[in-house]
């Protein structure tokens, strides 16, 4: 409790300091320019404070100042967001939490305007944060655009444009054999084509035994004027090799001490290998008056090969572990076309249609083996060659959408959007299931005070959201299609900008009523998914950001999340248990963060982040309460001319708490990665 008070105190202190004069020197600084960005909720370039939703934008410069290489690093100071590094998808993946819900499919991941993972699940493990221009984070549902709706949040990663000419090259190394390097550069123009290439090769090691990830990645962006508009082409190649960690079992109400910290119970040679290629094309132009037409199409293919295992009996007995061999081929296609038309200065309309198609086929086999609890050695298991089990899924999400934004007076804006969803899905040899439903949103922003870029604005929104249930290619999947997930949410808050743009404050309160949330269960020692009846999420979130002189940025956040089951009966040991009223597992009620960065163009640089995670239950029956914990990251560096030298430390408090639940074994959890130190040198020219 004392730790939580300290974290909240830090947040309030920064908020208090942000309201005080910055002194004579700061008063000589020019006003901060806040450029508009493309918000994923609307597709319209708008400043975040003009949109009736909780939104923040993290710049590429801020990511570089903090040495962020992973999604958990990048979003460590985002309000109301907690990203658990590592998951069943491997150490390169992560499981974000928004609004108190930590599920791998509840949010939407968008990369350069394309859903990354298509109509299936967000593909975090193949996400590249190299050469990022900005990351847009929307908290709450996004029911209108992008074909695959989101219930609790959207993460939109935007890489630098093809026309960017700055060149960066770097090498880095650190704890547990971590190391790598890469380059981002503008290529010579070829006729009217302007191109930019990013390429990198990285290995990340971990204290967990036999655990690492190695990735080779290349991203090519190119564009040119065409037919009175702009034509864009993108290609992305990702080769990922992961040696997975093992989740730590819980026995009774606590993580068992019978299994050593960092023990790995996978069979020898365990791996999660991904080869992914994605291509996209886009075209934008004005078509009449000030109306803008935009079209995007993309195709991606992923080949996944897994060989792994996990404990099923926490004892040194024969055949105490189960494993599987599985190959999965996934293809997904996305297309969108829309028109944005400012009919009059006070009214802007948008209309569009999109298609999101995906298909996947998995083949595999299961086996049992004996794994020493100590993890002292990995069992030698021959990879099955007869893959006699399968799991398949085909999805077709079609939609037509429209939205309008009206400003009847200068300080008041009203907005609304509507989407007609037509979805079709089949699993294995099962019959196709179709749904036709509406989803949409309404919102308003009211300016209470406006002076230049400073303002005080109230906002509110209502959103109705629909999405077919997740599918994870488990070999235990039956041929049936789960019920679609639906939600209704309400949000209201305050957005403040003060001191000529140097101070931002955003506070919000929300409630979401959710039906048919997909949760994990175990079928025949294999992970599977079920619907979980009715759930409810509510809370408050606060963020304060202070932009100070000398390239200094300070930020503090606090969130209270109350996530509960409302009506959900699940079988435990052959007996049905009503979970209504229980807190949802792994959902912390209190989250807080505070940090600063000092990153001038030359000289010394520094940053530090504190993150507090409150208590949370490890189980649905709320018998196992995990204690709060705090992590601390920090780094220092030196910039001179075109060179930068830096040292970064992650999880310097070396907390190893449980941060996400595995679907592979009953009551098993991935822990916070151990403390790491990395050093690096980069060149900019």
Put the structure in a nutshell.
This protein is mostly beta strands. The model is unreliable at 1-31 (pLDDT under 50).
Please describe what this structure looks like.
- There is one protein chain.
- The protein is mainly β.
- 5% of the residues lie in helices and 60% in strands.
- The protein contains four helices and 41 strands.
- The strands form eight sheets. The chain has a 22-stranded antiparallel beta barrel.
- The protein is globular.
Largest sheet: 22 strands, antiparallel, barrel
Structural category: mainly beta
State the share of residues found in helices, binned by percent: under 10%
Shape: globular
How many beta-strand elements? 41
The averaged pLDDT comes out at: 88
Radius of gyration: 24 Å
Give the DSSP E fraction (strand runs of 2 or more residues): over 45%
Q: Quickly count the helices.
A: 4
Low-confidence stretches: 1-31
Distance between the termini: 49 Å
